[in-house]
Amino acid sequence: MQEFITRIFFPILNPLFEPMNVWLASFFMPWARIVTLAFFIGTMIWVGIILKKDYVNLDAPSRTFCHDLRLWTVVSMLPHLFVYLYF
Fold first, then answer.
1. Interatomic CA distance for residues 84 and 32, integer angstroms
2. What is the C-alpha to C-alpha distance for residues 61 and 20, in angstroms, rounded to an integer?
């Protein structure tokens, strides 16, 4: 199956992604991890603390904490954060 997918998609995707891969390979890997984690944590802080509750929950069915989209945005981003921390 992997050979089939490689045979089909590699000629299409390689010209698009190879220049990016070469460029990104020149960066020191811990810096890439730090920048990525900073983006995730910064977004979580922005959504969870900075954005106004009334703006985020404009059409929420109720005002309880379980309908607060800020909470669920932060919760849904945590697995991504853990993956970047682990790998």
1. 10
2. 44
What pTM does this model have?
0.65
H helices of the chain, in order, are: 2-25, 29-45, 53-56, 69-86
Query: CA-CA distance, 77 to 37, in Å (whole number)?
Result: 11
Instruction: For residue 28, give the H/E element and its range.
Output: none
Rg (CA), the chain: 19
Q: Could you tell me the mean pLDDT of each successive run of 10 residues in the chain, 87 residues long?
A: 92 95 90 91 93 81 80 92 86
CA 16 to CA 43: how far, in whole Å? 28
For helices 69-86 and 29-45, what crossing angle results, to 10°? 170
Asked if 38 and 84 touch (Cβ cutoff 8 Å), the reply is no
Q: Which residue has the tokens 């979580």?
A: 44
